[in-house]
Description:
The protein is α/β, with parallel strands linked by helices. Helix content is 22%, strand content 27%. The strands form four sheets. A six-stranded mixed β-sheet has the order 4-5-8-9-11-10, with no helix packed on it. Strand 14 and strand 15 form a beta hairpin. The longest helix has 15 residues. It is globular. The N and C termini lie far apart (37 Å). The mean pLDDT is 94.
Amino acid sequence: MTKIVQLSDCHLFKDKNKVGYNNINPYQSLQLLLDKVEQLNPDGVLVTGDISGDDSEQSYQHFLTLMAQFNLSNKFKVIAGNHDQSNAFNKLLANLDLANSQPWQIHNWFLHGIDTRYQDTLGRVSDKDLGNLKNNLQNSPNNFHLIACHHHPLASGGWMDKHQWLNRDDFVNAVTTLPQVKLVVYGHIHHDSQHKILECDFHSSPSTCWQFASQADFAISEEMPGFKLYHLHNNGSFDSTTFRLQQEQFK
């Protein structure tokens, strides 16, 4: 069995004391969540984008410091989000970017990353990247595959669909026709969700800071910061658990 944690949408700031929606400090909430992640002792951690909230070099330094503090420095890979557009991301995290490297093999599972950054908050996957992904998937038909991305490949049913992945149908059609692809994980919508198309499951993760409400107009949910834990089994099945902070942890 392979144990994978998904963190997403950390939105760290240059100023570690700065708060955002619902008066949540993203540095503090990530720190509290990483304490739980360390206790779980995962085989790997996937960070699915928007590590920074202001694209500052200091925000990425804060992230790396926290990962080291909780003994996770050698266990994680990242995917860039729409907020991760600066040279600072490339300078500090390019060597950990799963979208620009070979698939990450843990036991009999292969973990892939794909870069969906396009224009501002909109997403798109290039024909080249999609072609490379399909080749990697087809080259290992007897293994099980997880794909990590930032933008949501399925409609969220709320206001975040204005910040969509423009050619997401190309991606969905490609991965759902390959039975070895068992799971797609993503962020961007700051909301925990689960869907299934054919034999492929699609899961989004809570944000490690503020949560978005899935409704027509912009709104923040009162749900607490969280992350997802996946147990990837040797037969290609998996199960997931969502962990969230409790309100009293912020007092």
